Amino acid sequence: MQARSIGAAVAAVLFASGSTLLAVPGASAAAFHPDPSGHVIGLGPSPTGVGNCTFPNDDASFLTVSGNVVVHDTSNKNGDWGGATFEGTAILREAPYSGFDSFGNPIDTGAPVDLYEGHLSYWSGGGNNAGGQTEGGFTADFHGTAMSGSGSIDVHVNVHSATNDSGTPTANVVNVSVTCS
Fold first, then answer.
1. Residue 29 has what DSSP assignment?
2. DSSP string covering 122-165, please?
3. Handedness of CA 47, 51, 56, 60 (dihedral sign)
4. Under a CB-based contact definition with an 8 Å cutoff, are residues 85 and 132 in contact?
5. In this predicted model, what pLDDT tens digit does every residue of 18-57 receive, in sequence order?
6. In 3D, which of 168, 169, 76, 89 has the Cα closest to residue 121?
7. What is the 3-state secondary structure (H, E, C) of the chain?
8. Does the pTM exceed 0.85?
9. What are the residue ranges of helices labelled H in 26-152?
10. Whose CA is closest to 147, among 89, 108, 98?
11. Contacts for 16 with CB less than 8 Å, ≥ 6 apart
């Protein structure tokens, strides 16, 4: 699961949005509420072999259908912090694949396959201080019903990583819980 890419995506969305920054000498802050419909939240590897669920491959994501989102960023002389929070309806999906590239990422070969629709709560964030320490992660909670109409799923994912000022990892946590019925 790629927590670092999520933080970069949040920053890109923030600056591309044209949101207003609050001007304070040496500091800025911004928050905005974009329309979440149609955005994809990548999870990286599917929870294959976790719980009592089976997944056909290794590339899971959520497609947001509707809901509420806030994206925020704060920067000052001590560092930069940002994140996003989403709550609403989403679809858990996987993309068909034909194997893996040289970096171990799945090679998608077609349109995503929608598996479950339901309620998603999602938070991602990260930051760094002026000394070089970094921290980032995300939490996702999803309860959905199978698109086929038979069965349900509960997914909880918690990812957190941190480095000290010299770039040495000090935390790398991945917790995944999946239950199907």
1. E
2. EEEEEEEETTS-EEEEEEEEEEEEETTSS-EEEEEEEEEEEE-T
3. negative
4. no
5. 333 344 456 787 877 888 888 888 776 655 555 567 665 5
6. 89
7. CCHHHHHHHHHHHHHHCCCCCEEECCEEEEEECCCCCCCEEEEECCCCCCCCCCCCCCCEEEEEEEEEEEEEEEEECCEEEEEEEEEEEEEEEECCEEEECCCCCEEECCCCEEEEEEEEEEEEEEEEECCCCEEEEEEEEEEEEECCCCCEEEEEEEEEEEECCCCCEEEEEEEEEEEEC
8. no
9. none
10. 89
11. none
- 104 or 117: which carries more pLDDT confidence? 117
The residue type of 93 is: R
SS3 at position 53: coil
Band of pLDDT at residue 160, cut at 50, 70 and 90:
very high
Token code pair at residue 108? 């998608």
**Beta bridge partners of residue 134, listed in sequence order:** 128, 163
**Both tokens assigned to 102:** 């040289």
Other C-beta atoms within 10 Å of 109: how many?
Answer: 10
